[in-house]
Design goal:
By secondary structure, this protein is α/β, with parallel strands linked by helices. It has helices at 2-24, 74-77, 140-148, 250-266, 285-294, 329-339, 341-345, 354-361, 366-383, 420-426, 429-449; strands at 28-34, 40-46, 51-57, 62-68, 90-99, 102-109, 113-120, 128-136, 227-233, 271-275, 299-306, 317-321, 395-397, 409-416. The chain has 2 domains: 26-138, Immunoglobulin-like; 216-459, Zn-dependent exopeptidases (Aminopeptidase), CATH 3.40.630.40. Helices cover 29% and strands 21% of the residues.
Length: 461
C-alpha cells in the first residue's frame, strides 16, 4: 500500500513537473517571411523572448538557428510554407526537434549572404519578435552605381538599405563556419503563402519577378540633365502603418500611390523616379534617407496617409523638417508617430556607422530646409485643388525620414485613412491618379523657380 501511494505521488510530481515545463516553454504565435529585392526578413513572434544560437554552415550554404526552450507548434512547422520559390536568397526552410529543449531551424540558401539576427521587444500590435534579416553579401546598390559609370553596363541591380540590425551578444553564439551536427529535417516544396495581415506576411509583387532598377537610355532633351526624384512609400512589411476605418492598411495605399507617381515622373522628359521600396517589406527610416543620398536624388517625397482618433478628421497635409521644434502640437505628435516606424518595423537605434551618423545629425544646412518648404508649398497648393487641406500651410517637425542634409525633402499626408470617405478615395485609382498629377505638378513648378544644379555623372541615366 505504501509502495502504491509512493508511486502515485511520484506520478503526480512528474505530471506537475512536465506541466510546469510546458508552461515555461516559449510559444511561437506567428511566423512571417518578407521576401524583397533588398533583403529577406524571417520573423518569429512569441509570447516571451526567444533564446537562440546562430551557426553558419558551408557546402552547401545554410544558416542554422537553434531555438532554446521553444515549443515546436503548428506555426513553426508551417514556416517552410511561407518561402516563395522566387525568394532571391532562401531556397527552403526546415524546422524540427534537434534535441530535448531545442528546436532547430535550417535555412538553405541560394547565394552568399550576410545575416543579422536580433530580438525585439513588444511594439504596436506585436508581441516579442525574433527577426533574421538575410542580406546579400555585396551591396547591390553600390554595384549598380559602379556599373552606371560604365557606358556599356545594363546596371540591372537591386537597391539595398544601408541598415544593420544588431544581434544580442548575451544570447547569440558566434558564427561558426565549420561542420556541425545537423538533424535530418524533411524539406517541403516551396509554395506561395497565405496572404493575410498581420498573421502572415503578404508576398510583395516584387518578389514574383526579380525586381530591378534598370539604367534606362538617357531621355534628356536639349542637353538638360536627368533629375532624380526619390519616392518613398511610407511603412511596409512588419510596419503596416495606420489602419483605415474599413480595414485598409496605410502601407498598401502608400505603395500604390508611390508606384503611380514613379510612372508619372518617368514619363516626363529629363526626370526619373526611384522607389525606396517597390513591395511589401520594411525599410528603416534612416535606410530610406541613405538610399536617396546614395542615388544622389534631387528631391525626396515620402507618401503617407494620416490617422486620427476622430473619424471626422479630413484633408491633406504637407510637412518639412524642423531644426527647432514642431510648428504645432499636431505636427509634433505626427512626427512622433511616424518616427515609431523603426520601433514597430524592428531596427536598432544604436547607429554606429559614421556615414549614417553624419546623415542623421548634420542638419546645419538650413538652405535645404528652406528649399523643402518651397517644394512643400508648391505641392500643397496643387494638392489643394483636388482635395480638402487639413492645414493651409506647410508644417514642420522632426521627421526622421526627412533628415537628409542635402536633399530637399517633404512628407505628404495624402488624406486621413481613418475617415471612411477619404479611405474610399485613397483606394480609388482615379483619385490616386489625381493625387499623383497634383504632386507632380507641384514638383515641376518648384523646379521652374528653382532649377536643379549639376550632379556628378553617376546620378544621371
Amino acid at each position: 500500500m505504501n509502495l502504491l501511494r509512493t508511486l502515485k505521488l511520484a506520478c503526480s510530481f512528474l505530471l506537475v513537473f512536465f506541466s510546469l515545463q510546458a508552461v515555461a516553454a516559449t510559444t511561437v504565435t506567428a511566423t512571417r517571411v518578407w521576401p524583397a529585392p533588398d533583403y529577406t526578413r524571417i520573423t518569429l513572434e512569441s509570447n516571451k523572448p526567444i533564446s537562440y544560437n546562430l551557426l553558419r554552415l558551408k557546402d552547401p550554404e545554410r544558416l542554422v538557428v537553434d531555438l532554446v526552450d521553444v515549443d515546436l507548434g503548428s506555426n513553426l512547422k508551417s514556416l517552410s510554407d511561407r518561402v516563395l520559390a522566387s525568394d532571391p536568397y532562401i531556397r527552403q526552410i526546415r524546422v524540427g526537434n534537434f534535441k530535448p529543449g531545442v528546436v532547430r531551424m535550417v535555412i538553405d540558401l541560394k547565394t552568399d549572404i550576410r545575416p543579422e539576427l536580433a530580438t525585439l521587444l513588444p511594439a504596436g500590435e506585436y508581441q516579442h519578435r525574433l527577426v533574421l534579416d538575410i542580406y546579400p553579401a555585396l551591396d547591390p546598390l553600390m554595384a549598380m552605381l559602379e556599373q552606371r559609370e560604365t557606358p556599356a553596363s545594363s546596371a540591372e541591380q537591386v537597391m539595398k538599405p544601408d541598415v544593420k540590425v544588431l544581434a544580442q551578444p548575451e544570447t547569440a553564439a558566434p558564427l561558426d563556419t565549420s561542420k556541425a551536427p545537423e538533424i535530418n529535417l524533411p524539406g517541403k516544396p516551396e509554395q506561395t503563402m497565405a496572404q493575410s495581415m498581420p498573421e502572415a506576411a503578404k508576398a510583395p509583387e516584387s518578389a514574383k519577378a526579380a525586381p530591378v532598377l534598370k539604367a534606362e537610355p538617357n531621355k534628356s532633351r536639349e542637353g538638360g540633365r536627368v533629375i532624380t526624384i526619390a519616392i518613398d512609400a511610407g511603412h511596409g512589411g512588419e510596419d503596416p502603418g495606420a489602419k483605415g476605418a474599413n480595414g485598409s492598411y496605410e502601407k498598401n495605399i502608400t505603395l500604390a500611390i508611390a508606384k503611380k507617381l514613379k510612372q508619372a515622373v518617368d514619363a516626363e522628359p529629363n526626370m526619373r523616379g526611384v522607389l525606396t521600396r517597390d513591395g511589401d517589406y520594411f525599410i528603416p527610416l534612416h535606410g530610406r534617407v541613405v538610399k536617396a543620398r546614395k542615388l544622389q536624388a534631387d528631391l525626396f517625397v515620402s507618401i503617407h496617409a494620416d490617422a486620427a482618433l476622430s473619424s471626422q478628421a479630413k484633408g491633406s497635409s504637407v510637412f518639412a523638417l524642423s531644426e527647432h521644434g514642431a510648428t504645432s502640437a499636431m505636427a509634433r505628435l505626427l512626427a512622433q508617430r511616424e518616427n515609431e516606424s523603426d520601433l514597430i518595423g524592428g531596427v536598432s537605434f544604436d547607429v554606429k556607422d559614421p556615414y549614417l551618423a553624419r546623415t542623421l545629425l548634420d542638419l546645419s544646412q538650413t538652405a535645404t530646409i528652406n528649399d523643402s518648404l518651397k517644394l512643400g508649398k508648391s505641392v500643397l497648393d496643387n494638392v489643394g485643388k483636388i482635395n480638402n487641406l487639413h492645414k493651409q500651410s506647410v508644417e514642420q517637425a522632426g521627421f526622421a525620414v526627412l533628415k537628409s542634409p542635402d536633399i530637399p525633402s517633404i512628407l505628404v499626408e495624402t488624406a486621413f485613412i481613418t475617415n471612411p470617405e477619404e479611405e474610399r478615395k485613397l483606394n480609388d485609382e482615379n483619385h490616386q491618379d489625381k493625387l499623383v498629377a497634383s504632386i507632380l505638378t507641384g514638383i515641376k513648378k518648384y523646379f521652374a523657380s528653382n532649377p536643379a544644379l549639376a550632379k556628378p555623372k553617376m546620378a544621371e541615366k
